[in-house]
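Components:
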Amino acid sequence: MSDIRFDNRVAVITGAGGGLGKTYALELSRRGAKVVVNDLGGKHDGTGANTSMANATVAEITAAGGTAIANHDSVATPAGGAAIIKAATDTFGRVDIVINNAGILRDKSFAKLPPEDLEIVLNVHLKGAFFVSQPAFAVMKENGYGRFLFTASAAGIFGNFGQSNYGAAKSGLVGLSNVLSVEGAKYNIRSNVIAPIARTRMTEDLLGPLAAALDPEFVTPLVVYLVSQQCELTHEVFSVGGGRFARVFTGLTPGWYAGKGVRPAPEAVRDHLAQIMNTDGYTIPKNVTDEMMLLVAQLQG
Ligand code: NAI
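Structure:
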């Protein structure tokens, strides 16, 4: 198969002034993409702003012979999201790829989390990805082509102490991507999610001895593949880091059917737990209709 190339493709990458996003920007530009490097340039807790981070990534791309522009808007408002996509269409005439990567942390145990730490984390991760993706979706729909990538986290998919705000936002992104994959299907728009693990400024104090094995560049190959034309996958989630690439999925067990018209007692549910929980023969629904059809089949015997 041919090399993965991005000639004539335009990629918007949020939070690409450092960490994981910067590696995506560099690799996509090496492979021919024109890149909008978005970064607000604040601290990892979401305070402050600085143009230097996005500018530095652009300087590196340009020095290597690539094409990129910097954008310093925050993803966290509808106006910011619109301005980021407008920067792409004004300069390069189109948008083919959106990598929603910008992020911050405000970790605290659930009992102690103040509303403002919920607000800002939802605004940047969940609403930010929504605000950037919505105007991009309109352009992609028009062009009949698009690739979205969302950045979730194991903290949201599997749970982690002290990250109720972050986990809720990150899980929300899986839901958003799933809907875009359903709504985008007929326009050749694909949408997938990664839950990465890598040594960046966000995690350097958290990874301990594992840090040395977790260069962000280990995540880049999967991201580059997922946003390529060669990738037909959609509605998927992957765990990625340190050179390991793995599928994460939401499955549905065959479950227990109480019988036509039967309204079982709670005790009957308890007594059938083993069957309800048994993962043998599970399915992976691609949308709500897939799930409904399985229920309908049982209801109709
Ligand atoms: P990072 O802190 O190096 O990168 C995040 C970037 O987003 C920063 O450059 C920051 O300036 C930018 N940013 C923050 N708020 C913004 C806003 N409102 N508008 C535009 N840009 C903004 O951290 P890292 O690790 O590279 O994170 C990238 C993504 O990966 C984040 O979404 C993070 O939550 C996610 N992630 C990272 C993990 C890891 O192990 N590094 C684990 C799980 C998820």
